Amino acid sequence: MPELRDDFRRKDSLPSADAKHPAGGRRPFREQSVSSMDVLPKINSWRQFRALLRKDIVMELRTKEMITSMGLYALLVLVIYYVALSQAGDNFDVGRIAAGLLLLVIVFTSMLGLNRSLVHEQDQGQLEALLLSPVDRPIIFFAKALTNLLFLGLVELVVTPIFLLFFVARSESVQFGPAWMLVLALLVGSIGIAGVGTLLATMSVNTKGKDFVLAVLFIPVMYPLLMAIIAALSAVIAGPLGWQTGYWQMLAVAVGYDVIMLTAAFGLYEFILSV
Amino acid sequence: MKKELKWAIVLAVIGGLLTTVAFVMAFTTAGVRTFGFVDTPGAVDTVYPLAPPDSQPTDGTLRYQRPWFSQKIFYFHVPLAEASLLVFTLAAVFAVLFLIKRKKSYDTRSYVGMETTLVFSVGTMITGVLWTIPSWLSDWTQIVPVMMAEPRLVTYLFMLLLVVAYFVLRNSIDDEERRAVYSSVFAIVAWLSAPITFFITRINPNGQHPVVFQSGMDPSNLIPFILGQLGMLALGFAIYSLRIAEESSREALAVIKDSFEG
């Protein structure tokens, strides 16, 4: 059964973290009896995707490096905002620019996180190991983008309420829209940031000026998304009458950007990994 | 002589001639368009007509239609912008070809195309600023807020930043194959901004930037415009071919040097 054996070999070379059978990946495949193949878990793309996702999450749970660095950085940016706006006076309404400030902290934090997530892979030679394993390239892309999205989402979950408490809660002119609309806008923005950011960060970790190059590439590419998301966020936080039309229009622009850019990143990621 | 070099010379001569003719025509035969109004205390001896009676001021001053002399730069600004977008598209096409075929010459072509795009986009920005100051602004210090509120100008600025980022990326990679692949990928991603900046005035009509190719034009304006377009395109491809010739001679020289050093 040639195709079965081929299938078997591919299973065997997977990382043993995924092993439901006791021997893991170490036992030479010749020793395995055919009957044990029924015990082996069925390998498909979904399982590989989950294994990659689990690898990143386990690594993060052990080191807690990305969450702490991103969270702390975001909090520091909020403190700097507070200092920067401390002399603005009573007549200045921070609520009017709150959407911009919120997006700014997210963009800066995400750049830090994207760089860190790929530097890990690069330092330990994990990316090479990943390429040696028989995993489809798009799966690597989607797993990496999803972990970046998860970590970014976690940080946003902590930072956004603190931000609103710091800057928006006391502002009188703000008519706050429903919270789920804020979350939806942030989610659409984060998907774009994580997807395109994964592509660009994979490029920038292999250059001489790692995080600087990431910033130079990331901000102009992100520009249309940032414009759309900031308009949607402003509509929710400080929206005048009839803001909902603007919100949905801008969200549609952002979703369009996400679709186009994720398709491009998904198609081009394979080339990035090939060198 | 190399084939590219011959092409470059022929195109440069054609482009130079056409652009010069367009320049001369723009200042001699082309009709002066009007834009806005000028108020004068009394009647003035001028060929420009009075503003329509219903918009005349009531305090005794006369309102004339204002001749739009700064519009002359239109015959260069628009062709420069077109050439930059077309050469950018060419660079992106060569980037795609490189990723498919993995031939070094395609990467060189894409790179040279990006260089030409940079030259032409900087030219577009400079001529655009020169035109913005007299046409849209009463005071030149307002230039940044006015420009950043204009969808076409902002999207074009970000296109220029992407082209600059391409060179930053390219210069920070040492390995030759990796540099070629990464810059091709980024060229494709960056090119996605070209259609955005081209169509933004049609999608979002709130800005002041006019939509070219929609409004009809007087023949005396149209002829120098077309000549300017052709001339600028020829100049663009002349610069492109010249750089290609230079790059291929440089590669040939490197091969010769290597063979001498053994």
Structure description:
The complex is a heterodimer of chains A (275) and B (262). Chain A has 10 helices and no strands. Chain A has 275 residues and is an all-alpha fold. Chain A folds into 2 domains: 1-43, no CATH class; 44-273, no CATH class. In chain A, α7 packs across α8. Chain A is globular and about 60 Å long. Chain B folds into 2 domains: 3-33 and 71-261, no CATH class; 34-67, no CATH class. Chain B has helices at residues 3-27, 74-101, 104-136, 143-148, 151-171, 176-191, 193-203, 219-261; strands at 34-40, 62-67. Chain B has a two-stranded antiparallel sheet. The model of chain B has no long low-confidence stretch (mean pLDDT 87). Chains A and B meet through α8, α9 and α10 of A and α5 and α6 of B.
Blueprint of the fold:
The complex is a heterodimer of chains A (275) and B (262).
Chain A: H1 2-12, H2 36-39, H3 45-63, H4 65-84, H5 98-123, H6 126-132, H7 137-168, H8 179-204, H9 210-238, H10 243-273
Chain B: H1 3-27, E1 34-40, E2 62-67, H2 74-101, H3 104-136, H4 143-148, H5 151-171, H6 176-191, H7 193-203, H8 219-261
Helix pairs in contact in B: 1-8, 2-3, 2-6, 2-8, 3-5, 3-6, 3-8, 5-6, 5-7
Oligomeric state of this protein = heterodimer
Secondary structure class of chain B reads mainly alpha
Low-confidence stretches of chain A: 1-14, 16-20
C-alpha-based Rg of chain B, rounded: 23 Å
Q: Could you state the order of secondary-structure elements of chain A as H and E? A: HHHHHHHHHH
**Strand content bin of chain B:** under 5%
Sequence of secondary-structure elements of chain B = HEEHHHHHHH
* Terminus-to-terminus distance of chain A: 35 Å
Query: Roughly what is the average pLDDT of chain B, rounded to an integer?
Result: 87
- Number of helical segments with 4 or more residues of chain A: 10
Largest interface: A-B, 25 and 26 residues
Helical amount of chain B: 55-70%
Count of distinct strands of chain B: 2
Give the overall average pLDDT of chain A.
Answer: 82
Distance between the termini of chain B: 28 Å
Overall shape of chain B: it is elongated
User: What number of domains of chain B?
Assistant: 2
The largest pleated sheet of chain B is described as: 2 strands, antiparallel
Residue stretches of chain B low in confidence (pLDDT < 50, at least 5 long) are: none
How many strand units of chain A? 0
